Amino acid sequence: MLSFIIPTYNEERYLKRSIQSIQSSVDGVYDYEIIVVDNASTDRSPEIARELGVTVLSKPHKFTISAVRNTGVEVSKGDILIFIDGDVYLHDTWIDNVPPVLERIKTTSLVAGSVYAVDPDASWVAKSWFQPWFDKQEQVSFINGGHMLLTRDLFDKIGGFDESLETGEDHEFCQRARAVGAEVENLPSLIAVHLGYPNSLGHFFRRERWHGKGNFSPWSRIFASKIPIFVLSILVSLLLSIIAPLVTGYWELALVYPLFAGAASAAAAYKWIGGFSPNFLSCMFLSWVYFTARGFSFFDVLKESLFGATKEKT
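Above: the chain's sequence. Below: its structure in token form.
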């Protein structure tokens, strides 16, 4: 039996399509259940889910997404767990390609899934930034929590999602999966489309600022990837551009930040899209926005560490 677990928070724009994509794909093919765990939504998300005939659990207040997913697992009955976010839908081809994947999951220790595809109607922001991520997903080292497949036994062996993490929980989950001997593999044939990719610069900035907190919390995660090092280097260049001219009188030093940040953004764009292409400049600009947002993430985590933060109960 397949257990589809959907955490949701104010997803009334997308949830119906997400649930119906599962139902239209799996009905008559596999025994399955859909469990929506509503994370204290203030919109019609839980009502929409109930209208579609799926199991709905409602949280009394907002929890971390890890805790929400773990709650869904606790009440699920299937031997295979499939995590789908409320703003993700299964492509029509998903069901044709999933049978061999399910067989592999049953016979090996495998965490499978795929990088989200970009919706055809998305804006230039989503297409410029996230399409390259989808195109090179075989190089990606972790599985998105919003489209992840594994057995219940393996999930229990890994220990579930870390409920203390506000973001970055899927990356950390995959690290622990490898630690217990499991394989982690992105499979491009399993296409799941993300409707929630940002379609404006403001949304993109806010998304990366929030996600970036996982790079610095806990502080030991600074060395988990190259991104925090890049971000901190750019922040240092910004401080030098502000302080060095005042101290030395050499105002040319004010160029340290724009030159360094520009070079870092160009290098990131080049690596991100695999060379120069028509959207290189837009990707370079988005790289700068990305690093800037992650810089704000650093200060958000620093502020919370120094002055405390209102923690969500888990």
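The first helix runs from residue 15 to 26.
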